[in-house]
Design a protein that fits this description.
The chain is an alpha/beta fold. The chain contains 8 helices and 10 strands. Bound molecules: adenosine-5'-triphosphate.
Length: 235
């Protein structure tokens, strides 16, 4: 579904991606991990065409994304930081995003799952951080696209919302969707991810499932296995 060849991206002197090669097959949940600043968001934004790489190619369903934009209709994206127009109500924002995408969106079940009904007529500026994140998730997950990209979806969520999010992501996977997630919450990653893609030093340092990672690092616990990857590299 996604193929990335030798991707490079610099921001000035800061070489963030230094030859990323990655293949993501269709169907399943893939966690993109790595220390702060390792380039996870840069990689995601490159896939979305929001960051233009200096070198390398990205293919989605065998088509290069360069100079193309139509492929983005097939992607539902949750940005790490969402900037909502403060004066709109939640209901108005949901309607606006549906109009903008010109696609039917099924928000009702998500509003129920995240217990957002009492907030529908409230202005976005009056919502708490966690409630804003739930709205952000509704805006992303209400469309039925084959590829879902979630940048730090767990930020600010309470335990009930976190449980709902896990259920929703698993349901999407069962439907055959491909889900890319970044998260610093290792327990969440361990529960949902089929595969780990670990970025370090601008490259994919490890790709595989959690059992393989544990074997490779000789750790029985996932969090320690990840820490071990970093130690191994002296990062
Ligand atoms: N638009 C930009 N202009 C300049 N530097 C940028 C820009 N976007 C990202 N960077 C830099 O690129 C590096 C990678 O950032 P990125 O946000 O991709 O990392 P990340 O792995 O997602 O980090 P985190 O775990 O903290 O979210 C950082 O050093 C960051 O400062």
């Amino acid at each position: 579904m996604i193929k990335i060849d030798n991707l490079h991206k610099n921001f000035g002197k800061n070489q963030v991606l230094k030859g990323v090669d990655l293949g993501i097959t269709e169907g399943g949940i893939f966690a993109i991990l790595g220390p702060n600043g390792s380039g996870k968001t840069t990689l995601i934004k490159s896939i979305l065409g929001m960051v233009i790489p200096d070198k390398g190619d990205i293919f989605i369903d065998d088509t290069p994304i360069k100079k193309s934009w139509k492929y983005r209709h097939q992607i539902d994206y949750l940005p790490q930081i969402a900037n909502f127009p403060a004066n709109l109500t939640v209901k108005e924002l949901i309607r606006m995003i549906k109009d903008l995408r010109n696609k039917p969106g099924d928000d009702a079940a998500l509003v129920t799952s995240f217990q957002l009904s009492p907030f529908l007529d409230k202005k976005l500026s009056n919502l708490s951080g966690g409630t804003k994140q739930k709205v952000n998730l509704v805006l992303t997950l209400m469309f039925d696209s084959p590829l879902i990209i979630l940048d730090e979806p767990t930020t600010g969520l309470d335990p009930i919302a976190l449980l709902e999010l896990k259920k929703i992501i698993q349901k999407e996977k069962v439907k055959g969707k491909t889900v890319l997630i970044t998260s610093h919450i290792m327990s969440f990653v361990e529960e949902v991810a089929d595969e780990i893609v670990f970025l370090l030093e601008g490259k994919v340092y490890f790709k595989g499932n959690i059992d393989t990672l544990k074997e490779k690092t000789k750790e029985t616990d996932f969090e320690h296995a990840i820490a071990n990857l970093l130690k191994e590299n002296n990062a």
